[in-house]
Each structure stands twice: as C-alpha cells, then as structure tokens.
Design brief:
single chain, alpha/beta, Rossmann fold, 45% helix
Length: 263
C-alpha cells in the first residue's frame, strides 16, 4: 500500500453505489483512502455515501459523508465550503456522477436531454467552479473527471444525450487543463469502456433480454474477453491524481481493455 496522498483531502462526487458491489465512485473513494487521502464522500443518497465511508473507516482511514445534488449550484457551493471548513483544503476533486438517459433521437424528450446534460456535464462545471479557487489558493490540485468511451466512439447504445454530454466533458477537461496549468492544477479525464459495475444492472440491463445476456454480450465486445471493474477505474484515477502523474494534464485516458482501438 502506498501513501501518496498522505495529508491530502480528496472529494469524491458520486462516492456511493447504486447497488451491491463496487461502482467506480465507491472504489475510487476507497482507493484514495488506501493511498492515504482523507475522503469527503459526496452522493445524492446520503446512505450510499455513508456506506462507503464506513468501509474506509473500517480499514483505518478517515472519511466523512455529505449529501449533495451536484446539479444544484447552492448545494454544491455549500458542501464545498463545509468541506474546506472541516478539513482545511481540497487536493483532489473526483467527478464520478453520470447517467445514460436511454432514448433515440426520435424518442428522447427535451426533459430527458436536459437532465442528462445537467447530471453529466453541468455537475462537472459546478463542482470545478466551486473547487478551483481553493486549489488556486493552495497553488496545487488535481481534478479527475469520469467521462466515457462514448465520448469518442459509438458504443451501440441509444443514448445521444450521453454521447454529447460526455464528449463535452472531454473538451471541458482539456480546456480547464490549459487554463490552469500555470497555477499548479492538473485536470484529466478517464473514459471507461465496458464496465461491470452495479450501474449497468440499473441503467443498461433494459437493453437486453436478461442480465446474463447483457454480461455475456458485453464481455464478448471486449478484446480482453471481459468487462472492466470499478477498481480498474479507481487505480487509474489514483495515478492521475497523484504526483506520479505530475507532468500529465489535459488527457482523456481510455480504460477499456482495448475496446477503443478495435476495428
């Protein structure tokens, strides 16, 4: 176990899990903690954030749960102010909140489109806007945005709002990286490919006849023969947020078992 985040505070938005098992945000929060970070675990469901905190504390780490709807400016500003008041700093911001919003261009309604844009894109804007001044004062910080392979590839699912919003996350990541590079702040994104997390059983399973068919077909789509896990994303995020990646910024890293380079 490394201690590369000793003395640092990591804010993980979407730190809970929508079901049993290890989602990307839950695994990331625990990974940061195992690497020495103090964790501010944020989720729209306080019980879900608290469950992640309980795991961290049971392993000897330090973490506090906060409830926040990251699509609401007042809530985001309030919780970030509370975190700074409580811990004194924010060193890592990890944005993991997202949803697919299934529906074709003909069936997706305006409300569903707007909701997807709010959750997937506006949330990143609001959390970064709240945290960047803190990092600027510190002269250092790292932001990791969880995007998706859908930002750069058509993955076969009918979710145009998801494709568009995640593509925007990639470009926002790059633009922030350049704007804040001279201020000691690095901004990167991770693009998960086909992942086996609790999220897919809630959001994607309806596209298949059964959970078993979904798992079989998604595994078959991956050059490795299997989907990734929340830990694959968590370990990549911890690297990008650490000083080991001090010369890496503005990158959108595919963590996809080779899916994005498959012909």
């Amino acid at each position: 176990m490394t201690r590369r985040f000793d003395g640092r505070v990591a804010v993980v938005c979407g730190a809970g899990s929508v079901g049993p098992g290890w989602g990307n945000g839950k695994a990331a929060a625990v990974q940061y903690a195992r690497d020495g970070a103090t964790i501010a675990a944020i989720d729209i469901e306080l019980d879900a954030a608290q469950a992640t905190v309980d795991l961290i504390v049971a392993e000897g780490g330090t973490a506090v749960a906060w409830r926040c709807d990251v699509t609401q400016r007042d809530e985001v500003n309030a919780v970030m102010n509370e975190i700074v008041a409580h811990f004194g700093r924010i060193d890592v911001l990890h944005n993991n909140v997202g949803l697919p919003a299934m529906g074709t261009m003909e069936t997706l309604n305006e409300g569903e489109w707007d909701h997807a844009m709010d959750v997937n894109l506006k949330s990143v804007f609001l959390t970064c806007q709240a945290v960047l001044p803190v990092m600027v004062r510190q002269g250092k910080g790292a932001i990791v945005n969880i995007s998706s392979l859908a930002a750069i590839r058509y993955t076969g699912y009918p979710y145009p709002a998801y494709y568009a919003s995640k593509a925007a996350v990639n470009h926002l990541t790059a633009s922030m990286a350049l704007e804040y590079a001279r201020k000691g702040i690095r901004v990167n994104a991770i693009m998960p490919g086909m992942m086996d997390t609790p999220h897919i059983y809630k959001a994607i399973a309806g596209q298949y006849a059964s959970h078993e068919e979904m798992v079989e077909k998604r595994n078959a789509m991956c050059p490795t023969g299997r989907m990734g896990t929340g830990w694959d994303i968590a370990k990549a995020a911890a690297f990008l947020a650490s000083d080991e990646a001090q010369y890496i910024t503005g990158q959108c890293l595919a963590v996809d078992g080779g899916f994005s380079i498959r012909a």
